[in-house]
Each structure stands twice: as structure tokens, then as C-alpha cells.
Amino acid sequence: MPSFDELLPRIHVVSLPLVTRFRRVTEREAVLIDGPEGWSEWSPFLEYGDAEAAQWLHAALEYANDAELDLADSGSIPVNATVPAIAAAEVPALLERYGTVRAVKVKVAEPGQTLEDDVARVRAVREVLGDDVLVRVDANGGWSLEEAARALEQLGAFTLDYAEQPVASVEDLARLREQLDGRVAIAADESIRKASDPLRVTQLGAADRIIVKAQPLGGLRRATEIVREVGLPVTVSSALDTSVGLTMGAQLAARIARETGTEVSPAGLGTAALLRADVTRAPKRPVEGTISLAPVVPDRDLVEQHAASAERRAWWLARLERCLPLLP
Ligand SMILES: O=C(O)CCC(=O)C1=CC=C[C@@H](O)[C@@H]1C(=O)O
Ligand SMILES: [Mg+2]
Question: Residue 301 and which of 5, 107, 155, 232 are 20 to 30 A apart at CA?
Fold first, then answer.
């Protein structure tokens, strides 16, 4: 693994404006790494501790440096549109940003909102896109067990592909899944972060599917191993990455499909549509419901234009220096 001094000249810290508030932020900060094997991204959320951010760093450095990763050199993968916790009236305009898609994921259980807001948002999605698209909801663990049961009985009327992390704990996921008895499938997202997590999710029968993300799980190799271990269907997702990170995610989806002989389920990698600016002139915004696997080379002018402030750059460099010795 490279040292801090080796990395320094290869690093660009950017801050990209979002079209709408997501996870309570309106700007997405990311570190781009110009690695020997191509461009990579390190973008752990700001509130994450160093140990967790070091997992994300492992992923970024693997992608930048590992010549044996065996990346797909052409093709594309299907993605879902992601609808943040916006008002139902804003749904049609937001969906337009994605063009034609076969799947949509709708954020629900936003603090300060009600179940009626969620129902209205999901109804608006069905009204715009009809009955043929897959509709998923993602609560980010925001419901209690009782709230989740009630919400999913109501939202189930719109025919859901699955509900992502409706409740926070693995135990509650298992209880909810039993109560729902197959009426709505359950996907585990936040419950799958550490290497030991997947085993627990399967042992407790807590989910029908797992969500995997390249950065939080420490990279393409580890994430693929976890998927093999769990043996459940998978959706690959991302963390509101720039087009560089989205491509890493697309490569993960292609790799999992190849190694497990399964089809790629529409991935949560359509979120370039939620960025008001990106680091490339050819952003990975969905085209006919897919994004390509082609590597991204950031545009120098765009990287400069969206460079983070000196203060934020210093914050990221300090974080990097602390995380390097913590690499798993
Ligand atoms: O999966 C998607 O459709 C897009 C990505 C997405 O939903 C997320 C991105 C960033 C942070 C996460 O809270 C969130 C998720 O929970 O999956
Ligand atoms: Mg999620």
C-alpha cells in the first residue's frame, strides 16, 4: 500500500453540489486518487470514524493499485433510479433526470415526515412510471418494528420489489420478516458492514437479499467474497459517489454476476443524476436504465472548478493520514 507522501501528489479533493438534499447534505465531498491502475475514489461520509473510513480507503487503494483485479473492459449494468425523501409533487421532475428506468428506489421513514408522505411519494412514482417498473423502498433503519409492519402493509399495496433496512437491528429485521411472511421481501443494507455481519443476517434469517457497496465493504475482492459466503440475492449500491466511485460499483456488480453466475439486479448506481456537477464531461448518468463499465478519467478543469476549499482539503488530508495506519 502506498505511503501518505506517495499518495499526496495523486490526490484531488472535490466538493460536488447535489440537486436535492440527501442524507442531510447538499454538497458531496470526495477524494479522487489518480492511481497507477486508474482513477479511484475515497468518500466515506463525514461523520464516520477512522476505523470505518479505513475500510473505504482499502477499497479505494485496491481499485487504484491492484493490477490483477480483472475489471470488465466493456459493457454496462442496469441501475435503479433513486428518489430521495422529497414531496410527492416533486417526484415527476426528479424522475425525468433518470430517463427510462426499469427500477426505482424510494427513500421512506425520513425523520420529521409521516407515513402519509411515504405513501404519497410511492404512489407518485407508480403514477409516473406505471406497473411495469420494480419499486423498492429504503427506510435506512428509520422505523420501529411496529411502524415498519404498519408501513409495509400499506406500502405493499403498490407491489414492492423489496424493503431495504426497514428497521435498524438484525433481530428486528428477522422478527419483521417473520411477521410479513413473504408479503414484502426484506433487504439488509446497514446490517451488512463488517465481515462478520453477513453470517449473522443469514443465521437469523433476517433478509431475503443483501445490499453490498464496494467502499464500505473494503473493496471488490472482499465484497465479492462476502456475497459468496452469504449466498443470498444481491443488489450492488453506492454512497452517492462521483462518477469515478459509481464505476467502481458497476465493476463490482459485473464481477459478482460473473463469479456467481447470476444476473445483475438493477443497482443503486444511478445517483449521478442527483449531482448538479460531476468530475467528468461524460458523467455516469443512466442511459436507458444502465450505466457503462468504462473507466472514468476526470476532467482537469472540472476537478479544479469543484476543488474543495483549502480548509476542507486539509481536513481530508488529515483524515487520510490517520486512516492509512488503520488499513485492514
Ligand atoms: O441505492 C441507491 O439507490 C442509491 C444509494 C443510496 O440509497 C444511498 C446512498 C448513500 C447513503 C445511503 O444512506 C443510501 C442507502 O441507504 O442505500
Ligand atoms: Mg440503503
Answer: 5
Q: Which residues line ligand 1 (CB under 6 A)?
A: 23, 80, 82, 105, 138, 140, 189, 237-240, 268, 271
Of 1-5, 13-17, 180-184, 321-325, which range is least confident? Answer: 1-5
Q: Are residues 322 and 281 in the same domain?
A: no
140 and 204 together in one domain: yes
* CA 149 – CA 297 distance, rounded (Å): 45
Q: Counting atoms of ligand 1 from 1, which one is nearest the CA of 213?
A: 17
3-state class (DSSP) for residue 328:
coil
Q: Would the pTM of this model clear 0.80, i.e. be above it?
A: yes
Q: How far is CA 318 from the centre of its chain?
A: 25
User: Would you say the C-alpha torsion 136, 102, 42, 262 has a positive or negative sign?
Assistant: positive
Beta pairing partners, 167: 142, 143
Residue type, 202: T
**Same domain, residue pair 167 and 308:** no
Residue 179 confidence (pLDDT) above 90: yes
